[in-house]
Here is the input.
Amino acid sequence: MNAHTEFLFQTGPSGQLEVAIDRPVGPSRGVAVIAHPHPLHGGTLTNKVVQTLARAFVLCGWTAVRFNFRGVGASEGVYDEGRGELQDMLAVVRSQAPDGPLCLAGFSFGGFVASQAMAALHAQRDIQKVVLVGPAASRFDVAVIPDELRLRTLVIHGEHDDTVPLQSVMDWARPQALPVLVVPGGGHFFHGQLPLLRELVQRHLAA
Here is the structure.
């Protein structure tokens, strides 16, 4: 993301995982772990939406941790339809954010994985914020948000998303009475709207 990004490798369930860490100026409020889009469709930790999420967290005082799922970039292993990818994200949390305040975020397929990580961790960890951008509700089983985390959760979706239809996200959110912030005219990758996306995330983190 910038010249100060720290790249490292850590042990994951299928071998080494490639990790990128960006730190805020001054003391960190905690760690945000951010998951990228679908590994078989070009998703990596350098995705522009993922970088925008990382930037928003850093500007709000959080340490932002991105990582490549198994089989992506220099991460070892092969795609596992979300099961192994969830274990990858949990391994990154254990290694890079073993305790203290935690945020979970993800884009598209990464939003699905982040939701499942939230479901696995919320009973034992202090999850401060959850940010799901374009969560892949039409293709994967996005987890239900626990009651106590709903006000801490931001769901953002593009009005004209042709990869994950808005209707599928509304159908997931409706039974939970979970608000969805819809970006007018927005597509799946928020082309031309990344500054707006960053601002919306920053507002949520400041609330």
